[in-house]
Amino acid sequence: MNILDFIVSNFNEFLTYTGYANATVGNLIMIVVGMFFIWLAIKKDFEPLLLVPIGLGIILGNIPFRADAGLEIGLYEDNSVLNIFYQGVRQGWYPPLVFLGIGAMTDFSALISNPKLILIGAAAQFGIFGAYMIALALGFEPNQAAGIAIIGGADGPTAIFLSSKLSPNLMGAIAVCAYSYMALVPVIQPPLMRLLTTKKERLIRMQPARRVSQTERILFPIIGLLLTTFLVPSGLPLLGMLFFGNLLKESGKTTRLAKTASNALNDVVVVLLGLTVGCSTQANEFLTINTVFIFMLGAFAFIIASSTGILFVKFMNLFLPKHKKINPLIGNAGVSAVPMSARISNNLGLEYDRHNFLLMHAMGPNVAGVIGSAVAAGALLGFFS
Fold first, then answer.
1. How many whole angstroms separate alpha carbon 365 and alpha carbon 116?
2. Residue 358 within any structural domain of the chain
3. Residue 140 sits in which domain range?
4. 38 is a domain residue
5. Per the domain annotation, does 235 fall within a domain?
6. For 134-168, what is each residue's pLDDT tens digit?
7. pTM for the full model?
8. Does 44 score more than 80 pLDDT?
9. How far, in Å, are 99, 252, 269 from residue 92 at the CA level?
10. How far is CA 183 from CA 51, 54, 88, 187, in A?
11. How many domains does the chain have?
12. DSSP calls for 203-270
């Protein structure tokens, strides 16, 4: 073999390792999807802290390479860096840490001052169980249907936690679907809110919330932890970390720990979670008919959850005196997309009355939705595990 044949032979061998030689149409489609997610995050400001890591993760997970080369670079290849990061998703480490951060940055005062708002958060969970029934009708196994249905809670970490336990083969699609609908809250919810409320209802002004004492704020996470985990012990990883983070915040003695949990630690976990969830959408795993069904069911669950929250407020108003009526625009906040849904309630309220500030009122059902989705996930996990 002369030197020219040697060079040509090795060059041809090199080409078989490149992405150009191994690319499929599916890879290219998913790379475009990843770019679209990044565009939505940067250009449209749709939850950039979520969609930028997920979008780049989708691109990263679909860079084609020769699968039989043993390079240990793919997400699903043992001992690869991405596979090590992915253990936090697959084993369910990341979601409880995210809940720790959520608890450390959440003020439950709106809920404590008006406890009946927790009913709105509970009503919004109907979307989960409605989607579960339809998923069963479409032929999904009960445990898979439960993993898909939790998308209705609009809570990405909860969806990942439950699907990693009940339907790990569908976790990538479920996680991307859950975070996608969380990011699209400003698009999906306002039309529903206008459709299901009258102009008179949108103008309802709620009474200012009463002042909540520090003692109440300290007791709330302790009592909440006991009540919810005694009811659904299987939700302990999420609920325990949520209330632990809140106790760090409200105790007044662990400010440094609360700041770490809500800032640095939470940011690191969100980066790793978003990136690895995006990487899990490799074309051969993601582009299936089941993914289409999951996105359809996720949309249905989210719409039902938002609608039932609004309709339940209207139902409550039938029994409340005039001066205690609740503005139905805060009903959409019963899903656990914190604080996006509460901001939507406030913005829509200001659109019809520029002096009607609903943000603090909407935060009540919004944080109740976080608790409600974790309780629902615990109930489903306990039932199907």
1. 9
2. yes
3. 88-384
4. no
5. yes
6. 888 888 888 989 888 888 877 888 999 998 888 88
7. 0.90
8. yes
9. 12, 30, 12
10. 8, 11, 22, 9
11. 1
12. TPPPPPPPP--HHHHHHHHHHHHHHHHHH-GGGHHHHHHHHHHHHHHHSSS-HHHHHHHHTHHHHHHH
